[in-house]
Design goal:
CATH class: Alpha Beta
Function: Necessary for normal cell division and for the maintenance of normal septation.
Cofactor: Mg(2+)
Number of strands: 7
Strand content: 15-25%
Keywords: Cell cycle, Cell division, GTP-binding, Magnesium, Metal-binding, Nucleotide-binding, Septation
Bound molecules: guanosine-5'-diphosphate
Structural class: alpha/beta
Family: Belongs to the TRAFAC class TrmE-Era-EngA-EngB-Septin-like GTPase superfamily. EngB GTPase family.
Oligomer: single chain
Radius of gyration: 16 Å
Strand order of the largest sheet: 1-3-4-2-5-6-7
Helix content: 25-40%
Number of domains: 1
Protein name: Probable GTP-binding protein EngB
């Protein structure tokens, strides 16, 4: 598959600075520490493609990775740090909303959330924008290895019900970067979104 071929293409300070490219892209978003970098590294079988975050609240860039000439993964900055000034948050939200609405090459959004704390306010906002822009959303419950199988299943069912109640048709799956639980399912969904 092309995920293992991922290589760094470009960084942008914000969405407005992304080139107007053709092809297809899928974006990854989540609260800081949700496990986004770990998931991207697991997906691409690369140790250091996406940096796992060590510096809370640091200004982050959008990183774009190329899979092949037609396909890209977009790593959006983590959100949810209390220290970030309100003005910056507002600006980020506005530009993110615009990206989800107007980026025609964008074929899907993966929203990563710690399985123990899914659907916080900002996650819900983001999912709402994506759904209202008719963008397919995969809510990925990360760090699934943190829960035993029974608890994990219960949490997944609860999250699916919650998603159905507040935003309709959103796919919810579990994932672990540690033991690769959910990796085939993740790839299957991305394959579908990235099909030419
Ligand atoms: P990001 O800020 O969303 O990019 O999150 P990171 O990928 O940097 O992960 C945040 C923290 O969660 C790090 O300490 C990771 O080692 C840990 N982590 C990420 N994914 C998993 C996972 O699947 N299982 C476990 N147990 N820990 C994880």
């Amino acid at each position: 598959t092309y995920y293992t071929k991922a290589k760094f293409l470009t960084s942008a300070p914000d969405i407005k600075h992304l080139n107007d490219e053709g092809g297809l892209e899928v974006a990854f978003a989540g609260r800081s520490n949700a496990g986004k970098s770990s998931a991207l590294n697991t997906l691409t079988r690369q140790r250091n493609l996406a940096r796992t975050s060590k510096t809370p609240g640091r200004t982050q860039l959008i990183n774009v990775f190329e899979l092949d000439e037609q396909r890209r993964l977009v790593d959006l900055p983590g959100y949810g740090y209390a220290q970030v000034p309100i003005a910056m948050k507002k600006k980020w939200q506005a530009s993110l909303g615009e990206y989800l609405q107007k980026r025609t090459c964008l074929k899907g959004l993966v929203v990563l959330m710690d399985i123990r704390h899914p659907f916080k306010d900002l996650d819900q906002d983001l999912i709402h924008w994506a759904v209202s822009a008719n963008l397919p959303v995969l809510a990925l419950l990360t760090k699934s290895d943190k829960l035993k199988s029974g608890k994990r299943k219960a949490q997944l069912l609860m999250a699916r019900e919650a998603a159905l109640a507040f935003c309709g048709d959103v796919t919810v799956n579990t994932f672990s970067a540690l033991n690769k639980q959910g990796l085939p399912e993740l790839e299957q969904i991305l394959d579908k979104w990235l099909a030419l």
